[in-house]
Amino acid sequence: MHKFPWALAMLALFGASPALAAASEKPAPETPRSPDARRVIDWIAATSDNHGLPYAIVDKQAAHVFLFDAKGKALADAPVLIGIAPGDDATPGVGKKSLAEIGPAEKTTPAGRFLAKFGLAAGKQRVLWVDYATSVAMHTIPKGNPKEKRRERMLSPTIEDNRITFGCINVPIAFYNRGLRPQFLKKGGYVYVLPDTKSLEAVFPPLHVQSYPKADASS
Asked: What is the mean pLDDT of residues 78-83?
């Protein structure tokens, strides 16, 4: 019963009816950011690692994405669907394989810092290419196989069922059309994909020298 208000807000992300959208007009509480996400957000802000471009942070362990403009202002966040298999590296040559040729262990969403730009995919569909060489893109839920229940998985409050893709990152329609596309369409931007098996420092080496405030002795 606690899921209903949250579900209304999520339905609005998918372009729900005006009546449902009106019911969810009340701003939703800010989505908590994991410690890893906060570290990367603070590092980007402190170093301007985004080089004046908008950026998105994909937290695989939380199955969530956070969008920022070129100045670091938080714009939106949303749940995501990611690769079925845990792992932070793409299998060599996976980008040249057909979907039918990709094995279960190869269906990973690679971690790292990517300069992402819009381009065409199969069927002349326009997507945000996160890593073109490995065929990893960020896009809305494809029609695909209805038995996969991707929309239901994204609407679910759990994160365990968000692993369903071949490696691409699926996002809600509203997040894609109203947030991601306007920000990234002109010049592209950076996508930071947080790891789920490696350490954060292994994927983002500059974090080794990131400074932190001294802890309060009374804490």
From this structure: 96
